[in-house]
Amino acid sequence: MFQVVFYARLGKEQGHFDFDGVVEGICSKMLRRHPHVFGKAEFADDESLHHAWEQSKRREREARHGTAAVASQLDGVTRALPALVRAEKLQRRAARVGFDWPDAGGALAKTREEFDEVEAALAGGDRVELGAELGDLLFAMVNVIRLLGFDAEQTLRGANAKFERRFRRMERLLAEAGRPDPAALEPAELDAAWEEVKAMERADA
To answer: Whole-angstrom Cα distance, residue 90 to residue 95?
Structure first.
């Protein structure tokens, strides 16, 4: 609440909006988007309700842009979001109009196709193209994660935490063995230590 009041005050000082306007806008949107709650509208099923909801949001986007020609389902997905979160939101918006894979199998096949394209770009030596293909691969993986019912940001956070836990344990293991500087070891030695940590985790489980 402090943040809402704070930003409303800044907006008022800059002549853009004030707190009353913020509250009025929220209330108007609630009334507009929920005619079945605040009005007399009736919907036969959840699908009809969802369709009316999307139509209401579409009209809002068209009103903001002034013309239907430039309005998009993707309007409103802010660029300030973390890339993984934004990718998932863009995909969900596109899915609302049926632009989606029927299941995770198709999305997974797409990641294999994107992986092949990464390998081709790597062999071609064009770093601009390689960067673009790597981005496509990440975007495709977000699709797989989303369609399997997971959150891309959370799954990556989990992977980060697992990697950090294992790496720190590997460092402790090496230090206990009298080899405290991983940088002084050969890659094969680091791989062996890493596999030992994974084996220890399996034994702990």
So the answer is: 9
CA–CA dist 22, 25 (Å, integer): 5
Element spanning 140, H or E = helix 127-147
The answer for residues whose C-beta is within 8 angstroms of residue 154's C-beta and 6 or more apart is none
How far apart (Å, rounded) are the C-alpha atoms in residues 49 and 154? 30
Please give the model's pTM, rounded to 2 decimal places. 0.70
Q: Beta-carbon neighbour count of residue 82 at 10 Å?
A: 11
State both tokens at 85.
Answer: 């979160």
pLDDT tens across the length of the chain (205 residues): 899 999 999 999 999 889 898 898 889 888 888 888 888 888 888 878 777 777 777 777 677 666 555 567 788 788 999 999 999 999 998 998 899 999 999 999 999 999 999 999 999 999 999 999 999 999 999 999 999 999 999 999 999 999 999 999 999 999 999 999 999 999 999 999 999 999 999 999 8
Q: Are 142 and 88 in contact (CB under 8 A)?
A: yes
Q: How far apart are CA 122 and CA 133, in angstroms?
A: 9
